[in-house]
Amino acid sequence: MINAENNGIEMENVKLFSSKVESIKRELGRDVVGQDDIIENVIIAIIAGGNVLLEGVPGVGKTRLVRSLGRVLSLPFSRIQFTPDLMPSDVTGTNVVEKDENGRLNTKFKKGPIFANLVLADEINRATPKTQSAMLEVMQEHKVTVNNVSYAIEEPFFVLATENPIEQDGTYPLPEAQMDRFMFKLIVKFPSVEELRGIVKMTQITMAETAEAVVGGEDILAMRRLASTVPVAEEVLDYTVRLVSGTHPELDDSPATAKKYVKYGASPRAAQGLITAAKVRALMCGRYNVSYEDIDALAVPVLRHRIKISYSAVNDKLTTDDVIAMIIKETKKVR
Questions:
Q1: In whole angstroms, what is the distance from residue 242 CA to residue 253 CA?
Q2: Mean pLDDT, the chain, integer
Q3: Is 3.40.50.150 the CATH classification of the domain at 5-221?
Q4: Is residue 162 within a helix (H) or strand (E), and if so which, with residue range?
Q5: pLDDT by residue (tens digit) across 197-233?
Q6: What percentage of the chain's residues is helix, strand, coil (to nearest 5)?
Q7: What is the pLDDT of residue 231?
Q8: Which of 255, 259, 216 minimizes the C-alpha distance to 335?
Q9: Average pLDDT in the 152-158 region?
Q10: What fold, for 230-333?
Q11: Residue 317: how many CB atoms within 10 A of its CB?
Q12: Domain-by-domain residue ranges, the chain?
């Protein structure tokens, strides 16, 4: 087993990392009832530098979670409500003409709401694909280009987008290229009876967030740098690569599940995101090495929006998550 001392990293740093994450969870728990797995994966994505897509019906606390995150991480927060008439410039910003004190006209770039550390893209699939595509560059490269001039977004930068189930009226399916820019797709389920009771009691006291700041932007970047140093054993890396490659039915050595139930497989970004996120999860668990367990735990949220299942899967009443679980099981057999 590879430990921190062998790599010149003191275990104290790992303990401090885990302690900070627990502090973040504890403060978020003051504003958000339940959704423990959602909170954990959102924290992983922020530290790893990825973006998250949340799917769920309105009113399950998605906006409250992001607002509370802004308070806990002491970072500027902005919200963009996506609607059918939203234009790309409403997201990124645009050049405006202003007069100076001498009466001369000058062009100045007016930043849009995307220029924040935490951005909530609410109901992103209610906007047209043209507006959704405005998010591609900023989500991948953390910069905005307007009239051939690039403007960098201050780090850390994180987009949490929410979407309504595609069956609802007034929604557009997100382009595959944009879906691929999300590290995770998380499904927010309706709360249990006890959780709903807790939500009602909490909001009867106050609708405002009460969480307090426990870390800052520099802390997040330092945690990201530490996570990038976590080693990955060759066996674990090989398993990850075979798992992602195993979603491609056109490959000769793909699992039988993929050949039968998958129409399109995941992109190389899936493997990159899986390893990056697994490093963060390992530190959160107090380990300085990525395990098979980390890969298996994160495979579904990393892959569920990157593969398309075939009609055979739908006919057999299988969901995308079911197919991924079957591929994981088959890949484990040759581990």
A1: 9
A2: 85
A3: no
A4: strand 158-163
A5: 776 776 666 555 566 778 888 999 999 999 999 999 9
A6: 45, 15, 35
A7: 92
A8: 255
A9: 90
A10: Helicase, Ruva Protein; domain 3 (1.10.8)
A11: 7
A12: 5-221, 230-333
